[in-house]
Structure formats: structure tokens, C-alpha cells
């Protein structure tokens, strides 16, 4: 008997409460905010570091820099994380940066989910029979159920 599971790349978002000083600058127009679907600060930090960013994480925000560009990520009330960019960064560049960061974020989430699933299956007595990746980047795992 075989059991098949499909892991689909998942997009998850992360945010924090916006500090009033930075929020004021956003409202004044010196900075602008782009919302994301990211929710986990630690995975976001890892994704940024994997992409070559220097990152610092504290209780309220993540500060990231690449070259001379600094980006601040903060948790919002809806538990997602938003990115705050200086007005000197073009909207197109900011959106491309977030798209690439989000792709790395989802790759990490999928990898972590895969590792947890394999470990749990092993603990439940299931044997990995096959693993295939489809055109849409979904991963299909087939397990052999011990009888």
C-alpha cells in the first residue's frame, strides 16, 4: 500500500508593530511601506542572509542592508511583516527585492516542511518510496506503509 503527499510551495507572511517614528516618516512620504505575506521573522532573517543581506533582528523589527540600501521589516497588526523603503529606492526595485526575498522565504519554508515530514513519517514507520518534482515545483512524496 502506498501513500502520496504533495508539498506545494507556500507563501507565508510576517510583520511587527510599526514604530511611531518610522511610521511618521512613512506618512510624511520620506519612506514607503510594502506589505508582504511573511509571518516568521526568523525565516525572513535566514532568507535575507541567504540573499547576501546584512541583517539584525530585535523584538520590534528586522533591519537589513544590501550595499548602501537599508530596509526595515516590521510586524503589522494582522501578524504579517511589511517592508519599509526610503523614497530613493524605486518602487520597481523594492518590489523586485521583495519578490526575490519571498521566493527564498518560501523555499526555506518548503525545505523545513519537507524535513519535518520526512522525520515524522520515519517516526510513524513509513518508508519513503519515491520523490518527484513536478513542473510547477510541487514535490510529490510517496511513502510505503509498513504492514
If you average the pLDDT, what whole number results?
A: 80
Q: What is the chains' assembly state?
A: single chain
Shape: elongated
Read across the widest sheet, the strand sequence of neighbours is 2-6-5-4-3
Straight-line N-to-C gap:
9 Å
Largest sheet: 5 strands, antiparallel
Contiguous low-pLDDT stretches (5 residues minimum) are 1-21
> How helical, in percent, are the residues?
25-40%
Percentage of residues in strands: 25-35%
Tell how many strands the DSSP assignment holds: 8
Rg over C-alpha atoms, rounded to the nearest angstrom:
19 Å
Structural class: alpha+beta
* Helix run count: 3
- Written as H for each helix and E for each strand, in order along the chain, the element string is EHEHEEEEHEE
Question: Brief overview, please?
Answer:
The chain is an alpha+beta fold and 147 residues long. It has helices at residues 20-28, 41-50, 91-123; strands spanning 2-7, 31-35, 54-57, 61-66, 69-75, 81-86, 126-133, 139-145.
Q: Could you please describe the fold and organization of this structure?
A:
It contains three helices and eight strands. The chain is an alpha+beta fold and 147 residues long. The strands form two sheets. Strands 2-6-5-4-3 form a five-stranded antiparallel beta sheet, sandwiched between helices. The protein has a three-stranded antiparallel beta sheet with strand order 1-8-7, covered by helices on one side. Residues 1-21 have low confidence and may be disordered.
Amino acid at each position: 500500500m502506498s501513500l502520496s503527499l504533495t508539498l506545494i510551495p507556500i507563501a507565508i507572511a510576517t510583520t511587527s508593530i510599526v514604530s511611531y517614528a518610522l511610521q511618521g516618516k512613512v506618512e510624511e512620504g520620506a519612506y514607503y511601506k510594502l506589505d508582504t505575506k511573511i509571518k516568521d521573522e526568523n525565516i525572513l532573517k535566514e532568507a535575507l542572509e541567504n540573499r547576501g543581506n546584512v541583517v539584525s533582528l530585535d523584538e520590534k523589527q528586522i533591519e537589513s542592508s544590501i550595499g548602501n540600501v537599508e530596509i526595515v521589516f516590521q510586524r503589522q497588526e494582522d501578524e504579517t511583516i511589511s517592508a519599509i523603503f526610503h523614497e530613493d529606492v524605486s518602487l520597481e526595485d523594492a518590489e523586485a527585492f521583495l519578490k526575490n526575498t519571498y521566493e527564498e522565504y518560501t523555499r526555506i519554508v518548503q525545505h523545513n516542511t519537507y524535513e519535518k515530514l520526512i522525520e515524522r513519517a520515519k517516526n510513524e514507520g513509513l518508508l519513503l518510496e519515491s520523490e518527484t518534482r513536478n513542473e510547477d515545483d510541487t514535490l510529490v512524496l510517496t511513502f510505503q506503509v509498513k504492514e
